[in-house]
Amino acid sequence: MALDGSPARESATEGAVCGGPGRPEKGCVKKGYVIRKADLPALLERFAGACDVYAPVYEDGVPVFGGPEGVAWDFPKTVVPPKEFFLPHTERFLKFRRQGRGYEVQPAGAPAPTVLFGAKPCDMAAVDMLRRVMLEGRFKDEGFEERRNSVIAVAVACETPDRYCFCDAFGLSPGSTRGADLMLYPAGDLMYAVALTGNGERAVGLGGTLFAQASPEEVAGAASRYGSRDGHSAGARTAGSCLTGETVREAAGRMATDFHLPYWEEASERCLSCGICTYLCPTCHCFAVVDRLRGDVGTRSRCWDSCMYSGYSLMAGGHNPRPTRLERVRQRFMHKLVYHPERYGEMLCVGCGRCVEKCPVGLHVASVASELAAATDEAPGGGARMDGVPASGARTGGAGVGGAGCGG
């Protein structure tokens, strides 16, 4: 069910957008609209009259989702991805109370209708990847499905992708529409919009007269500016922005054919097991389930966890199938580039660049793919890294910013 309680799927024969939230279907009509940038504050006010509204804001100089007051209209990439709106950092499943020899169970309430405004295209593509994991298998995560259906996701094309990202290496672009309900393309003083789903049309309906119809040619012209990262990125190139899809595929092929690559020993020595890569990754979804009991009353909750922690795979009997950092580091990147593609036909990365920017030792998808593609068994890492730091050397901080450009 969608925000107003009606089915999310609508009839394409009536000229409406159809498909569930974030999932437009083939044959559906995608309507185009235009809105003035000066009217965006008024648009959020109208959203707030019907839903909870979250947009990028700066808190203590850090971009996060909050508001809707003090919106950062340059739509920065938030430090923590918006996956927390669909897979919360901590989520209470149920509350229970002991009643004699049994229990009284109270399930969690339904999520509130929400507008997520200003999400990055890569982050919404990540949400759609999570949707496949949570909903397409034998078992469905009903909580994830309820939250996805309750959110109108309004994505904004990246006018200036930052120097850490590499979305194009994974088949995306600054204007990718995957996972979004309503897509906005900045064009001067205007925003051209495409309603991709029923929830996207409902967002336009909430905006009312703030939106005007736009021709397919106008929308296509605005969207064409965002088909590639070329000419958009700002600042010095990094290990992330230098990455190519060919390099990723070459590295994945090598990982798939040799499980015991010597490279993993060197790479794991650099890892601090801090877990920041998993907590800031929009596609990571490791979690733990925790029961807390006080007297006769308790709760069961799910919270984010990290496969980089030594206790993540520890079993009750004391056995740990990944007892050292080597196994854990290898598992993380094998999952992203080998195991997930084997199951879902796509790599579990959208190239957002958060790991490139935040990993204190420069061990991230871009560096691993680049090093493995160039590596030899005798010299793990293949000599100099893309950021100029030797693969065998200790990292002293920063995020792999190269001053000489790609391949320099």
Q: Please, could you describe this protein's structure?
A:
The structure is a single chain. This protein has 408 residues and is an alpha+beta fold. It has two domains: 12-80 and 105-226, no CATH class; 236-273 and 308-408, no CATH class. The chain contains eleven helices and twelve strands. The protein has helices at residues 40-48, 121-135, 142-150, 198-207, 216-223, 245-257, 263-270, 276-279, 325-344, 354-358, 365-374; strands spanning 31-36, 52-59, 62-66, 90-99, 102-107, 114-119, 151-156, 182-187, 190-195, 212-213, 287-294, 297-304. A hairpin with a 2-residue loop joins strand 8 (182-187) and strand 9. Helix 6 packs across helix 11 (365-374) and helix 7 crosses helix 9. The longest helix has 20 residues, at 325-344. It is globular, with a radius of gyration of 22 Å. Mean pLDDT is 85; it is low at 1-18 and 377-405.
Q: Summarize the helix and strand pattern as letters.
A: EHEEEEEHHEEEHEHHHHEEHHH
Indicate the mean pLDDT.
85
- Radius of gyration, taken over Cα atoms and rounded to an integer in Å: 22 Å
Provide the helix percentage.
25-40%
Query: How many independent structural domains?
Result: 2
Terminal CA distance reads 53 Å
Instruction: Indicate the structural class.
Output: alpha+beta
Strand order of the largest sheet: 3-2-6-7-8-9-1-10
- Strand element count: 12
Shape: globular
Beta-strand fraction estimate: 15-25%
Task: Describe the main β-sheet briefly.
Answer: 8 strands, mixed
Low-confidence stretches: 1-18, 377-405
Number of separate helices: 11
